[in-house]
Amino acid sequence: MRVTSADVARESGVSRTTVSYVLNAKQGVVITDATRKRVLDTAARLGYTPSAAARALRSGRSDLVLCVLPDWTVGPLLDSLIDHVTTSLHEHGLSVLVHISRGSRPLTDLWRAVTPCAVLGLLPFAEQDARAMTRAGIVVVDAALDEDPHPQTFSVPQAAIGQLQVEHLAQRGHRVLAYAAPADARLSAFAERRISGVRAACARLGLPEPRVTEVELTVGSASAALAAWRADEPATGVAAYNDEVALAVLAAAHDQGLLVPQDLAVIGVDDIPVARLATPPLTTVWQAIDAQAEYLAQAVLAALDPARPRPTRPDDVFHVVTRAST
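^ LacI family transcriptional regulator, sequence as received from the core. Prediction below:
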């Protein structure tokens, strides 16, 4: 059962008003040192913590930033982004609550319950949600997976990743390409955009339509995909959705006795730590996660304090890290 200020007042033998004055360090009120000490000692003994909602009402703003994640898989990059945003905002006295959107509970229920000063979304919010939060005095900052014309929205264009992969493979002489897509439906929003970039780049460079196959993170699944890609006119280059899928393809290539990159070139995405430890080390598309996270954190701070300048969008968001797999 939650300890309230009324409990502290009863145990201290003083009024709730006095407890409020002491716990909120109200200025201009005469309270003896003995009374102040008794109230603080009682609050500590009972384990009293102030209500976040009440604190927000008193100060006019809470110190909580609600970070809303879509129903995505949580991996090294998302972990890194959340950690960086949390650290950056903490340095400015703000705490971050991370919520993964699963189920049908309305977002309204959540932000009304936790009274955040700002809500940060990694996808654009529904118009009615954004409008309701703004009317409630909550700052709204969001991001997008495509180029977004709204100047306040930070876009991370996923199609550009697929284009980089194709351009890299084409520069190394590969004309018949395959795409190893993720099998997890929660990643479809990313995968569809990256595949569209792969297809657009193939068309622009005069390459055949890429052969797209879902690959689970098993040697068996990757081997089946590889057998299909090598039938008829063999694909000699594979663009994988991310490094984990690419590692499955490398394992399948080894299992089938193919040489990488002589028989098959493979490029991933994310530059996770194990990519450089693969056999051979994996070529990949590096993402500026720290810079993206810092932009989002600074965008929240600028939205909360109009006197702060808005952050500058990072220029180098993606680039290819070339290793032996291509």
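The mean pLDDT is 89.
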